[in-house]
């Protein structure tokens, strides 16, 4: 509730100019840090509550940095990218150290929702997809150490679901060169996550697969790829061959 409240407050304050934008961003960032600190302090006495609070704090930090860079111009793109990398690494380490899939779920869900909650229908799709690529690096990093299938599915659904929604509303053939590399990158990332999951769940000659990714990933990716190349003669055929 607090996470959604912060996102609505940021948009409301922006629309009505209640406070200077620097104060709004600083306040939201401070709130995220306070939530993280509170969650860490309560991690032993109230574990589930503490994990939810930490996840909310991480989500608020994603919201703040994304909004400050994309909508308000308070952070250069490179600086925002570095900060987001630090948040991804930090939240990944926190979830692994505490063996807490709940923290990872809420943290990454907040990260994936940030652009949706703050969307104005404008802005560069390259920034959006690069941001999602960064979040998926975090999902891939977690998959290297933990077999949290639900986190893999959360990242998959958000990445390809929001990507498909953007494509249905905003894609134009002239965007092909800036969209295709991200689709290929996402495919390779989740193919790698599928392999990591299978290797971690191998018992002798028996291997447990994440069938949702193993079968869903190529189906969804090829569907999106076909939409990207529908203007190209033999585009779907060459994509199928690849």
Please give a quick description of this structure.
The protein is about 80% helix and about 0% strand. The chain is mainly alpha-helical.
Explained architecture:
- The chain has a two-stranded antiparallel sheet.
- The chain has helices spanning 2-16, 21-41, 47-70, 77-97, 101-117, 125-145, 149-170, 176-200, 211-228, 235-241; strands at residues 202-203, 206-207.
- It is mostly helical.
- The N and C termini lie far apart (44 Å).
- Strand 1 (202-203) and strand 2 form a beta hairpin.
- The longest helix is centred in the C-terminal third of the chain and has 25 residues, at 176-200.
- Spatial strand order of the main sheet: 1-2
String of helices and strands:
HHHHHHHHEEHH
**Beta-strand fraction estimate:** under 5%
Distance between the termini: 44 Å
Helix/strand layout:
Elements: H1 2-16, H2 21-41, H3 47-70, H4 77-97, H5 101-117, H6 125-145, H7 149-170, H8 176-200, E1 202-203, E2 206-207, H9 211-228, H10 235-241
Antiparallel strand pairs: 1-2
Helix pairs in contact: 1-2, 1-3, 2-3, 3-4, 3-5, 4-5, 4-6, 5-6, 5-7, 6-7, 6-8, 7-8, 7-9, 8-9
Notable characteristics:
242 residues, mainly alpha, two-stranded antiparallel ribbon, 10 helices, flat
